[in-house]
Amino acid sequence: MNKFLEGHFDYKELRKKRGAGVLMHITSLPGKYGVGNMGQEAREFANFLKAAGQKYWQILPVGPTGYGDSPYQSLSSYAGNPYLIDLDDLIQIGLIFEGELDKYVDDVNLSKVNYEKLHRERKEIFKLAFSRFDLKDLDFQGFISKNNYWLKDYAMFMAIKDHQEGLSWLEWEDKFKLRDESALIEFEEKHRDEISYYIFIQYIFFEQWNKLKDYLHKNGIQTIGDLPI
């Protein structure tokens, strides 16, 4: 047994619990806003798995995607993909109002995804939701504290990327590419709102992700995932 895994898994016990599952990336679920998400469609798929006697749902990496939108070409091994956020849930928590999403509804039978359109529309929606969010919310502040080992760096990275015309970090100005401390401090002071925006998106993502995981576990479904290289 791999020494790293020793003590974490009882393989003899696991072999007694044979089970089957299905590989289905969340984006491949039916979705009226361009791709599948972590909302009702995901819960219905979990119900289907349970009814079919399946125990596992294998998903691909769920990190934010870069150019080409491949789940294996992620911008972070920690952050979640904003495309997977259930937009209808934003209505339930009061950040989006009834009717504001109507113009974003797509035909669920489309055979291809227009990711350029998806990216543009999601940004409009999330910016609107962010403008109504209270950054002093205690749960939000707790999320920041719990994830401080990666969250701020990721949000800074995304905000800088926006100001570098979306280019790969290899093509950024040297002061950012080489993490010049004074340049980063100056950027943070000037663009706190933009950095908070990316933190907000991750907060919403993980709130929904944890709810989905709880639903799956209550129905006897375990997830199998992997990380981008």
Q: Could you say what the CATH architecture is?
A: Alpha-Beta Barrel
Instruction: Name the beta content range.
Output: under 5%
Instruction: Compute the number of helices.
Output: 9
Quote the average pLDDT.
Answer: 92
Number of strands: 3
Order the strands across the largest sheet as they lie in space: 1-2-3
CATH fold field value:
TIM Barrel
* N to C succession of SSEs: HEHEHHHHHHHE
Tell me which oligomeric state these chains represent: single chain
Please give the radius of gyration in angstroms: 19 Å
Helix content: 40-55%
Highest-level CATH class: Alpha Beta
Low-confidence stretches: none
Task: Compute the separation of the termini in Å.
Answer: 23 Å
| Overall body shape | globular
Report on this structure.
The structure is a single chain. With 229 residues, this protein is mostly helical. The protein is 45% helix and 4% strand. The protein has a single domain (11-224), classed as Glycosidases (TIM Barrel, Alpha-Beta Barrel), CATH 3.20.20.80. The protein is globular and about 55 Å long. A three-stranded parallel β-sheet has the order 1-2-3, covered by helices on one side.
